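Long-time lurker, first post. I've been practising inverse folding by hand and with some scripts of my own, and I keep getting stuck on stretches where the structure tokens seem ambiguous. Below is the full token string for one chain I'm working on. Before anyone asks, I'm not after the true native sequence, just a reasonable design that respects the backbone. If someone could post their per-position residues I'd love to compare against what I wrote down in my notebook.
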């Protein structure tokens, strides 16, 4: 087995930190008081007034969504505002009663909900755990290349992993939800005949020097394509991007030098 060498294209990042005042003042003002009456009225399953589609279920201080990919999220009501998540996201409540809930979604549209009276709507929430979206399937590629009169065989295997990637998105009702995806691990193996010359399992974090951390955290490792071989080694092109968004980072990588 020859020594493993792989290199990445690096971007120089300069961090500038300013001076901070070490003296801290304690904020003695109490935060806005939670509207417990509104929270009580919100308990139950809510459906779209027009389509009668189930939008979400509120149970205690948690919002549950009917699909299998959106994570449940904490909420509270402050004044006339629905506050969702730790970020948080805020929605103005224009009308609320025991059976009517009107609020403005992220696009500025008024969402008119009514409390469900259909017993079977509860089936959407029974023992439901959000299931990650698998971004790909097991893919195996076999490539044969020649260099300096030597025949090389390259095996590329894309393996869906159990590593989770979280991404905020708007659902069909204009409500921001958190979806979870499974990331990929990609194995590159190089053989001469039956003799393995090189093998390595790549994950997206190995490209951290080439992709901003905030983007990398939300991205999925999509592919590694063989480009060519020369005196420097085997050149591959790694593709990493945020799920369901146009564009992706492409990083040229030398994985092995004969």
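-- Answer (accepted) --
I ran through it position by position. Result:
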């Amino acid at each position: 087995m020859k020594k493993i060498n792989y290199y990445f294209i690096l971007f120089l990042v300069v961090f500038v930190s300013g001076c901070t005042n070490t003296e801290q003042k304690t904020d003695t003002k109490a935060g806005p008081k939670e509207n417990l009456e509104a929270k009580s009225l919100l308990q139950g399953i809510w459906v779209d007034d027009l389509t009668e589609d189930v939008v979400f279920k509120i149970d205690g201080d948690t919002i549950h969504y009917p699909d299998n990919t959106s994570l449940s999220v904490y909420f509270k009501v402050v004044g006339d505002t629905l506050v969702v998540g730790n970020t948080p996201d805020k929605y103005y409540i224009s009308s609320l009663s025991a059976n009517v809930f009107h609020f403005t979604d992220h696009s500025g549209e008024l969402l008119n909900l009514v409390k469900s009276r259909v017993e079977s709507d509860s089936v959407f929430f029974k023992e439901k755990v959000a299931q990650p979206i698998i971004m790909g399937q097991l893919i195996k590629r076999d490539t044969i290349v020649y260099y300096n009169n030597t025949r090389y065989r390259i095996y590329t295997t894309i393996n869906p992993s159990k590593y989770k990637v979280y991404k905020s998105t708007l659902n069909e009702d204009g409500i921001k939800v958190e979806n979870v995806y499974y990331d990929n691990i990609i194995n590159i193996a190089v053989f001469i005949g039956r003799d393995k010359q090189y093998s390595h399992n790549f994950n997206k974090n190995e490209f951290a020097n080439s992709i901003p951390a905030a983007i990398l955290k939300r991205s999925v490792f999509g592919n590694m394509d063989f480009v060519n071989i020369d005196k420097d080694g085997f050149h591959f092109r790694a593709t990493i991007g945020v799920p369901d968004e146009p564009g992706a980072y492409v990083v040229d990588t030398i994985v092995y030098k004969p």
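A couple of notes from the structure itself: Helices lie at 36-42, 213-217. Confidence is low (pLDDT under 50) at residues 1-28. Happy to go over any region you disagree with.
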